[in-house]
Design goal:
The protein has 235 residues and is an alpha/beta fold. It is built from 8 helices and 12 strands. Helix 3 packs parallel to helix 4, helix 6 crosses helix 7 and helix 6 packs across helix 8.
Length: 235
């Protein structure tokens, strides 16, 4: 069996970063298409089925945040790793709120970027290979893990890879309280940094998808002092 060669879209307005990062990832057996702005990313996505997008946050004209938000509004669910300036925690949080799946501060070690890429792709392929064929029902929603699909009353709802991974963790463990550390390990395969708010941000995004009132959730509830719990009955 021939191993699939994964396709990456790398977008950064710094030509040196583009060249060095693209060469490193190409040497790691990825097919890499590069661009320096949102328009060139759009052209790449029209021509190729990218497995993952690596997107710089700080770019002129259309920023990485704006590009990420536009893609999610247009229901492009391809996983996105956001490259952010070191120490800009607010921008990282906003990036996650816009629909990014992970972030990496600049300057970054190419090996760490490779690890983040492989982790996202591995989770996606593992979930595709080992999933239940039985749809999960809660309220008016149907969550089909095998098809990576979420729908409400027969209407499909766009869900990013990060949101899917997190919702899968919860739906497979109904009424089981999960700490943030457990959620991070189960969904992302890594330990939770003490300052990492990515879990909370993505849970907030999921609540906007499945809750009538995200501020008063009935399905994905907060377990005060511990973490979160999924109640499919909406209790």
């Amino acid at each position: 069996m021939v191993e699939k060669k994964h396709v990456l879209a790398l977008i950064d307005d710094d030509p040196k970063i583009l060249e060095l990062t693209a060469q490193y990832l190409t040497d790691q057996s990825f097919t890499v298409h590069v661009g320096k702005n949102g328009k060139e990313l759009d052209d790449i996505l029209k021509k190729y089925e990218a497995d993952l997008i690596i997107l710089d946050l700080m770019m002129p004209e259309e920023t990485g945040l704006q590009i990420c938000q536009r893609l999610r509004v247009n229901q492009v669910v391809t996983p996105i790793i956001m490259l952010t300036a070191k120490g800009d925690e607010v921008d990282r949080i906003v990036g996650l709120e816009m629909g990014a799946d992970d972030y990496l501060p600049k300057p970054f070690n190419p090996r760490e970027l490779l690890a983040r890429i492989n982790a996202i792709i591995r989770r996606k392929e593992t979930f595709s290979a080992k999933v239940s064929t039985k749809p999960i029902h809660f309220g008016d929603f149907i969550f089909e893990i095998q098809n990576r699909n979420l729908s409400k009353n027969g209407k499909n709802i766009a869900i990013t890879a990060g949101e899917f991974d997190l919702l899968k963790v919860f739906t497979e463990r109904p009424k089981q309280p999960l700490s943030r550390d457990q959620i991070m390990q189960l969904a992302k395969g890594k330990e939770l940094d003490v300052f990492d708010r990515s879990i909370d941000v993505q849970i907030s995004r999921i609540r906007k998808l499945i809750e009538d009132d995200p501020n008063n959730p009935k399905y994905l509830q907060t377990k005060w002092g511990f973490g979160y719990i999924f109640n499919p009955d909406g209790e």
